[in-house]
Design a protein that fits this description.
single chain, alpha/beta, DNA polymerase, domain 1, TIM Barrel, ten-stranded mixed beta sheet, two-stranded parallel sheet, 34% helix, globular
């Protein structure tokens, strides 16, 4: 059954006209769906049409199977259940300026980053644009409305390029979520050709690069994608993105104890980024048991930040949130897959 949230407003017009329905119904149906309203509840749609729609389309292929709430800061972690039985995750972070949802673009991931639980079981499949929208719709129904989005859950957004771009365009559709793309961050481990392609799309999202090392030799041990796209090629693509969009690039740098957090690493990173309009976000590592890596102590993170600032690199430390929730990408999903916490239909308890 087709996912109703995959369709653009224009595609809804075409679908309705093909069955003899007036085109203006498209705006009504589109708006209802993006508010999480089922066909049967669409009060301004004739009953025969509602019946036909419910027989043709799945309203939202996303259900929240479980919600974990942090006792430390109110962060919420969701286990989403998909129509085909797959599981993905999302995280809602609460800030004074509004709530941010970290959402997934794939079921699992094939990038192989050695600190991310999403990669442990490989890639199962891509998500559709409607399944990405569906995560927001499902969370919005819990109130308050999400203000900011981060494509940083399980999956590599640029490895699912067409559906990710389709999702970003759906966000802007009139009558739908109408989310400003300036409030969207797209995180990638560095697929350089697709960063250049993204720069041509005219979509003013914030480009966030999972960097995590100042040189190819070290980065290759943490992110295998570096073998295909070395740092020089990646940084050249980032500068191209900056020139085309006018938006500075954000570099994510997970601080890993004894691996990438020394004074020499900080100096090398500063040399790489000097003169570039960018910002470095230092992230205390969200530890994944299977990898055995540990987050850097606070004093080393502080020293790393001080070195970058001395080289006039814009830098902040990310506030660690949801530490009591197995916050790293893929950890909750992996626990369910490992423990088999499912009912007879495959639905998590």
């Amino acid at each position: 059954m087709k996912n109703a949230l995959d369709l653009t407003l224009n595609q809804w017009r075409e679908a309705l006209e093909s069955i003899g329905e007036p085109a203006y119904r498209a705006s009504q149906i589109f708006a209802w769906l993006h508010r999480g309203i089922s066909f049967t509840e669409m009060t301004n749609i004739p009953a025969p049409l509602r019946k036909k729609l419910s027989e043709t389309y799945a309203e939202n292929g996303i259900r929240i199977a479980e919600t974990l709430v942090s006792k430390l800061d109110g962060t919420e972690k969701y286990l989403f259940y998909l129509q085909d039985g797959h599981l993905i995750e999302g995280v809602r972070m609460r800030y004074k300026h509004g709530d941010t949802l970290c959402l997934s673009t794939q079921v699992g991931c094939r990038m192989g980053c050695v600190f991310c639980a999403s990669a442990l079981d490989g890639l199962a499949r891509n998500l559709s644009r409607g399944e990405m929208i569906g995560q927001i719709v499902a969370v919005n129904k819990r109130s308050p409305i999400i203000h900011n989005l981060v494509l940083m859950g399980s999956g590599e957004p640029l490895d699912n390029y067409d559906e990710t771009i389709g999702f970003l365009r759906l966000l802007k559709e009139p009558g739908g979520l109408q989310t400003s793309l300036r409030s969207v961050s797209l995180s990638t481990c560095g697929i350089a050709p697709k960063i250049r392609r993204l720069a041509e799309e005219g979509l003013p999202v914030t480009l966030s690069i999972s960097l995590h090392a100042p040189d190819d030799a070290l980065r290759r041990t943490l992110l295998p994608v570096t073998t295909a796209y070395p740092m020089d090629e990646l940084l050249s693509a980032c500068r191209y993105y900056l020139r085309k969009t006018g938006r500075r690039v954000l570099f994510e740098y997970a601080m890993i104890d004894g691996v990438n957090d020394s004074e020499s690493h900080a100096q090398a990173l500063s040399s790489r980024l000097r003169g570039m309009q960018c910002h470095v976000n230092l992230i205390p590592l969200n530890e994944v048991e299977e990898y055995g890596l540990r987050r850097s102590p606070k004093e080393r993170v502080d020293a790393f930040q001080t070195t970058l600032e001395a080289f006039h690199i814009s830098v902040t430390k990310r506030r660690v949130m949801g530490l009591d929730l197995s916050g790293a990408c893929g950890q909750l999903r992996r626990r369910y897959l490992r423990e088999g916490d499912n009912d007879e239909n495959g639905m998590p308890y």
